[in-house]
Amino acid sequence: MPFAKRLLQLDLEYSRWATQRVLAACDGLTFAELARDRAGSHRSILATLNHYFISERFWTECLVANALPPLGEIGVAEIYMPQEEHLGAMQRDWTGVWRAQMEWFEPLSEEDLEGDLTTSLPGRPPIHLARWQILRHMVNHSSLHRGQAVSMIRAVGKQPPNVDLMGYYIDVASRS
């Protein structure tokens, strides 16, 4: 596999691994701990997880559909399940998002990854984003919010998981 494609694949695999660790850590939290306002950018652990779940699902759907909506139409998604059921729903549904990502990604060539999708902002020329740029954004955005969730897990007095990239590399190397 060409090096650039392998790096993107590792990014996607790392992001899945790290999110699985955060979700597993959240299994040990009460609903009150998950939903408590921690004054973060998305207020609570649950809302932060919801935000980056919705985002990963959105960008994955765009890549699979090979189309982007106008950027001005991308809005803030609400929690899509009753609060008490939300963590379990995300854990279940994220698996499908990751599967869709890999099913879309695996057959692509590097040339496909360099190809772009076009979107727009009002009053501006068309915006062309390469597929690899969208993937990198998705992984980076998830890393940002995973870090916030880790901080909030620590704030409730629990030991958060190691979600560092080097931790992933060491975990993979120790399984080989």
Overview of the structural elements:
The protein has helices at residues 3-27, 31-35, 45-65, 83-105, 110-114, 131-155, 165-175; strands at 116-119, 127-130. It contains seven helices and two strands, in the order αααααββαα. It is mainly alpha-helical. 65% of the residues lie in helices and 5% in strands. The protein has a single domain, classed as Four Helix Bundle (Hemerythrin (Met), subunit A) (Up-down Bundle), CATH 1.20.120. The two termini are 19 Å apart. The protein has a two-stranded antiparallel sheet with strand order 1-2.
Quick rundown:
With 176 residues, the protein is mainly alpha-helical. It has helices spanning 3-27, 31-35, 45-65, 83-105, 110-114, 131-155, 165-175; strands at residues 116-119, 127-130. It contains seven helices and two strands.
Layout of SSEs?
Elements: H1 3-27, H2 31-35, H3 45-65, H4 83-105, H5 110-114, E1 116-119, E2 127-130, H6 131-155, H7 165-175
Helix pairs in contact: 1-4, 1-6, 3-4, 3-6
Q: Mind describing the biggest β-sheet?
A: 2 strands, antiparallel
Query: Would you tell me the overall average pLDDT?
Result: 92
Strand order of the largest sheet: 1-2
Indicate the radius of gyration in whole angstroms: 17 Å
Silhouette: globular
Give the helices and strands as they follow along the chain.
HHHHHEEHH
CATH topology label = Four Helix Bundle (Hemerythrin (Met), subunit A)
Please, how many helices?
Answer: 7
**Beta-strand content:** under 5%
